[in-house]
Amino acid sequence: MTMTAIEQLPERVNIDAPLVRRGRFLATRFLLEVGDAQWLITIQDGQIISVERGPFVMPSWSFALRAPENEWRTFWSADPPPGFHDLMALIKRRALKAEGDLKVFMAHLRYFKDVLAKLRTQEVAS
After folding, report:
1. Superfamily of segment(s) 3-121
2. pLDDT tens for residues 65-103?
3. Which helix H or strand E contains 33, and what residues bound it?
């Protein structure tokens, strides 16, 4: 998984009609932090509207997902091992920090799990 793959997230998510439908009541902006790199991801009606790469001075977001780059790389591998296979597993191991309005994150947890799984190596090849 390359960092530029994150910027291709709109194309990967927006063509998946069942995933977009699952997020149809979601409108938010969240921060994805991969090591020192940051992205603001804007979602409207289940579609990824924009992915902006940081650094940001004072970004506005509803929640943030932060983890070291090596944790994300393992999560985004084609067949991640136990403890890396799921966002909640990363949180349980304290590798992923979720901050901010977690009601939005938890209410649409399955959607966010599936969106971030679109960056897995097997997804990149397709």
Report:
1. SCP2 sterol-binding domain (3.30.1050.10)
2. 999 999 999 999 988 999 889 999 999 999 999 999 999
3. strand 27-34
Distances (CA, A) of 8 to 5, 11, 18, 82, 122: 5, 6, 19, 26, 15
Instruction: Annotate 60-79 with b (16+ C-beta within 10 A) or e (fewer).
Output: ebbbbbbbeeebbbbbbeee
Identity of residue 124: V
| Structure-token pair, residue 5 | 């793959």
Q: Is the peptide bond between 81 and the residue preceding it cis, with omega within 30 degrees of 0?
A: no
Q: What is the pTM of this model?
A: 0.88
Which tokens hold the place of 66?
């932060």
Question: Are 116 and 9 within 8 A, CB to CB?
Answer: no
Domain ranges of the chain: 3-121
> If you search the block for the tokens 């990967």, which residue do you land on?
12
Task: Give the distance, in angstroms, between the CA of residue 97 and the centroid of all CA atoms in the same chain.
Answer: 12
Q: Is-contact 34 72, C-beta < 8 A?
A: yes
Return d(Cα 104, Cα 119) in angstroms, integer: 21
